[in-house]
Amino acid sequence: MSRTEGLTTVQRVSAAAGAGRRRQDEVYRAGVYGHRPRVPVTSRALQARAKQALNARAYAYVAGGAGDEVTQRSNRTAFDKWAVVPRVLRDVSNRDTSVELFGRTLPGPVLLGPVGALELVHREADLAVARAAAAEAVPMVFSNQASVSMEECAAVMGDSPRWFQLYWSTSDELVESLISRAEKAGCDALVVTLDTTMLGWRPRDLDLGHLPFALGKGIAQYTSDPVFRRLVEERAAAAGAPRDPQPRPTLSAVRALVGMARAWPGSLTDNLRSPLPRAAVETFLSIYSRPSITWADLAWLRSRTRLPIVLKGVLHPDDARRALDEGVDGLVVSTHGGRQVDRSISALDALPGVVNAVFDRAPVLLDSGVRSGADVFTAVALGARAVLLGRPFAWGLALDGERGVRQVVSDVLGEFDLTLGLTGHTAIDQLSPEVLTRVG
């Protein structure tokens, strides 16, 4: 049993103090007996090992970015523009890495961000991530494009924090249903993703002709929703028998049909004979996101939920100011991991402007490009209240399921704790841009 199993969330947060030293001790003591970490500790090696373990479609979907992937590279090189200036001869023997967000005290400034279609990388998908997040006491942001419903994930998390990502559908009734379910599932916040009102141009997926949602993957939040299921039934009834000649079936088409049948509730045998699984995919593709949303829609959303509303994808200071004027409770500076707009400003480069525009009126988080505890330190010093991890935990999931996710989280928090102490600091509120120097 690990040191955190069987503990309450409060106890796990308290146990996180000194996480870096304990993580090192755990690894080095195991090394005496010939045991090494189950997944690589460095981000580059972690991704390389995951690439070996995954098929081409799965790897491309997680690793890929928009266009020539300039934004994705910029999200990483932005961190190289900053260097930490350590201070010495300070008592750093006792450190507190905790941070508060929406009434929750977290062990460190790290959340697990929403990653869609995780069934591509591991059979337990979001369920394994939910168990790992609960074990490490870090919040999990349930993906709107999850492979496991929010209710199933919440059921294994106990009192651990969880948020819900919302893609604003063209069906307001479906949006209301998803929000209601998030509230009932115990979510602490609603993360409205603004940068994916349309799917970005992603060459890796395009070259493979692969969109997981078109195969029934990553749509569990929809197929578990009563409003969506009714829309599917209405679509299937209206369509009737196909009127146009159907293309000759191929092996790929048969596999796709089986995948769609598995995604729909009920027995596989019944679903293979039913028009509903295919109608579900077609319904999803037609309504999943709404390009027409504007600032005016936020008032409608505010009236439909008691949860804090966090806007994800904010990069411009003027948008940050407008968001707070509209009553938003938090922001995530994000480029969607470089997956939506190529040659966009990097998330870290945009962070200081957004933080200055907000001026402590609401928490600002950072997503995109974070790979290590040192990256977390830099982002927090530049004003982020916390960061969202994405690809790193997905690679850990691919290599070792729940244990792989837990190790990635533990490694990132451990390195952050040690970086905090080794630079002469004992708490997050001591970090500011003054602890960094610009080098690029």
Topology, pairings included?
Blueprint: H1 9-15, H2 19-32, H3 43-53, H4 56-63, H5 70-77, E1 82-84, E2 99-101, E3 104-106, E4 110-112, H6 125-136, E5 140-142, H7 150-155, E6 162-166, H8 172-184, E7 190-193, H9 203-208, H10 220-223, H11 226-239, H12 251-263, H13 268-273, H14 276-287, H15 297-304, E8 309-312, H16 317-325, E9 330-333, H17 347-358, E10 364-367, H18 373-381, E11 386-389, H19 391-422, E12 436-438
Parallel strand pairs: 4-11, 5-6, 6-7, 7-8, 8-9, 9-10, 10-11
Antiparallel strand pairs: 1-12, 2-3
User: Describe the biggest sheet?
Assistant: 8 strands, parallel
- CATH-defined topology of the largest domain: TIM Barrel
* Helix proportion: 40-55%
Compute the CA-based radius of gyration.
Answer: 22 Å
Number of domains: 2
Shape-level CATH architecture of the largest domain: Alpha-Beta Barrel
CATH class of the largest domain: Alpha Beta
Number of helices: 19
Tell how many strands the DSSP assignment holds.
12
**What is the strand arrangement across the widest sheet?**
4-11-10-9-8-7-6-5
Average pLDDT, all residues: 92
